């Protein structure tokens, strides 16, 4: 059976992924180093080959069409894996380090900030091992970034920042949410494998009386976020997932409050405390990047 990947040029898929991630042809063109017209042509070419429209063309930008959300999420994950594979193929030495991190944090937040680390530390090569497995640092992994309670045996865990959650939705839906009670009258997008629930946000808001409505269910937080961007409902998200779409105006926060869950981001290294110079440089940079982006900062209701 012919490989379906051979049907679509890789250049077209790169353009589709960049537009899905960044929201506009211009932003995707800057990311890829080409013109917006070239990006548009590649997106159209991919849509023609696949026989479906991947985006809704709106004045504010390119919004993934509802049925295409899963396709685009898989594309993002695939290109994150390709980037990690290329990095892993690089020569290793004293100034090479491998970071184990969850795929969502890698593809939605970390990988787009790594150029800043490379600019500050050009002699250090970083390999990203994007995996959901609970990997321990050792011979092949220098450090891990995990989300949880921090009580893992056999390793050293340094708290990086609390996991902060808040509701998001498309801007045109946000205007319909003037009070917490309105959450019962709009679709609520839920991730079936989330490590937190609406009670973790409604409790600090003092509104445990509110029962959020029903809505789409997805097993992947990235799909949930894409569904929120496309206007399918309200999603209770976490900062590292939603930071960039919020900054680009593709999402809105209908309520002011941001609240911490019992979980946090942790930097995990070997239990004996042995950390090489490149690893310490990455940890220091990651802490500064989290702090500079305001990740982990809570906000009271208002």
What would you note in describing this structure?
The chain is an alpha/beta fold and 302 residues long. It has two domains: 4-64, Winged helix-like DNA-binding domain superfamily/Winged helix DNA-binding domain (Arc Repressor Mutant, subunit A), CATH 1.10.10.10; 93-302, D-Maltodextrin-Binding Protein, domain 2. Helix content is 39%, strand content 21%. The protein contains eleven helices and ten strands. The protein has helices spanning 10-22, 25-32, 36-50, 69-88, 103-110, 114-120, 171-174, 199-205, 221-229, 239-247, 277-293, and strands at 55-58, 61-64, 96-101, 125-130, 143-148, 155-168, 188-191, 217-218, 234-238, 259-270. The longest helix is centred in the N-terminal third of the chain and has 20 residues, at 69-88. It is globular. The model has no long low-confidence stretch (mean pLDDT 89).
Category from helices, strands and their pairing: alpha/beta
Proportion of strand residues: 15-25%
The radius of gyration is: 20 Å
Largest sheet, strands/sense/barrel = 8 strands, mixed
Morphology call: globular
Query: Quick one: CATH class of the largest domain?
Result: Alpha Beta
Helix content: 25-40%
Give the count of structural domains. 2
Mean pLDDT: 89
Q: Enumerate how many helices there are, as a single number.
A: 11
Q: How widely separated are the two ends? A: 58 Å
- Give the ordered list of helices and strands: HHHEEHEHHEEEHEHEHEHEH
Largest sheet, spatial ordering of strands: 4-3-5-10-6-9-7-8
Show unreliable segments: none
GO molecular function: DNA-binding transcription factor activity; sequence-specific DNA binding
Protein name: Putative transcriptional regulator protein, LysR family
Pfam families: HTH_1, LysR_substrate
Domain HTH lysR-type: 8-65
């Amino acid at each position: 059976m012919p490989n379906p990947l051979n049907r679509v040029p890789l250049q077209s898929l790169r353009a589709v992924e960049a537009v899905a991630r960044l929201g506009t042809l211009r932003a995707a063109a800057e990311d890829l180093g080409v013109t917006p017209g070239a990006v548009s042509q590649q997106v159209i070419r991919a849509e023609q080959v696949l026989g479906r429209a991947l985006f809704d063309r709106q004045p504010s930008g390119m919004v993934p069409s509802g049925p295409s959300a899963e396709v685009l999420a898989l594309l993002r994950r695939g290109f994150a894996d390709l980037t990690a594979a290329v990095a892993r193929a690089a020569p290793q030495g004293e100034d090479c380090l491998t970071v184990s991190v969850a795929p969502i944090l890698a593809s939605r937040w970390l990988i787009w900030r790594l150029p800043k680390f490379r600019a500050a530390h050009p002699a250090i090569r970083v390999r990203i091992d994007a995996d959901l497995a609970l990997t321990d640092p050792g011979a092949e992994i220098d450090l891990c970034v995990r989300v949880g309670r921090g009580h893992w045996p056999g390793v050293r865990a340094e708290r990086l920042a609390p996991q902060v959650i808040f509701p998001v939705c498309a801007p045109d839906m946000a205007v319909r949410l003037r009070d917490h009670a309105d959450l019962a009258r709009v679709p609520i997008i839920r991730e079936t494998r989330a490590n937190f629930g609406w009670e973790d946000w409604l409790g600090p808001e003092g509104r445990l009386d509110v029962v959020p409505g029903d809505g789409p269910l997805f097993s992947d937080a990235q799909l949930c976020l894409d569904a929120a961007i496309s206007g399918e409902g309200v999603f209770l998200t976490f900062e590292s997932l939603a930071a960039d779409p919020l900054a680009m105006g593709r999402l809105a926060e209908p309520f002011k409050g941001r609240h911490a869950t019992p979980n946090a981001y942790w930097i995990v290294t070997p239990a004996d405390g042995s950390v090489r110079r490149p690893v310490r440089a990455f940890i220091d940079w990651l802490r500064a990047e989290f702090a500079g982006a305001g990740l982990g900062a809570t906000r009271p209701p208002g």
